[in-house]
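Interim report to the steering committee. The following record documents the input for Glycosyl transferase (271 residues).
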Amino acid sequence: MSSVLPSRSQAPETAGEYRPISSHLAITPPVSVVIPAMNEAENLPYVFKTLPAWIHEVVLVDGNSTDDTVAVARDLWPGVKVVRQQGRGKGDALTTGFEAATGDIIVMVDADGSADGNEIVSYVSALVSGADFAKGSRFANGGGTDDMTFIRKLGNWALCTAVNRKFGARYTDLCYGYNAFWRHCLDKIELDCTGFEVETLMNIRVVKAGLKVQEIPSHEYLRIHGTSNLRAVRDGLRVLKVILKERSNRRELRRQDRRSPMLGPVRGEVR
């Protein structure tokens, strides 16, 4: 599913099968970038400017914007696939985008200008090297953030610690929206939430599904224009609710495992 860049002697026969993503790596799997956006017309130029040219497709999920979000996206990336969101919330938008994406690899990127598209190569490299899920982390060595208050950092740390202890993960970050994964992951994790807690739900369920996760150091920049819909207390409580619910579900699975010797324990691996 992946390969290093072919040599000059091989290039004439295989060049059409590979898309270079760096001087040392080329890939065959198509990559889709999913961007949920609502009234982000001013930020999209910064987002699209850093997207690599080798991306297979960009899927913009428009949350019923009242500004020129869609027109700006089409002007910046003429082949962009625009999908109108029928529901509400970031979780619903991402689910809509994942369903519309056609790539074997899916990258999720926020539309506020806080993510650097140049980092996508690191995510894709991790996936083609063997990971199922490449999880961005602002607190892994080499990562950083310009957009978190002390209280939000403390809350993220507490929630991350709870997930690590309850589910056997080794995450350094939990509530971050810059991630990438193979399409097959969607067959193993059900996304049944609508809000900002979607990243936490994904992080928990990939571990419960036993998928191989690799953290990618990422730097989060300040939102360039506008204000975020994130509310620290409200959304923090929603994240906590997800953790407690998933923990409860895990206990029920363990009871089923004890009753049925045909079922193995649920394990996850985080590197």
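The longest strand covers residues 31-37. The committee is asked to note this result when reviewing the revised timeline.
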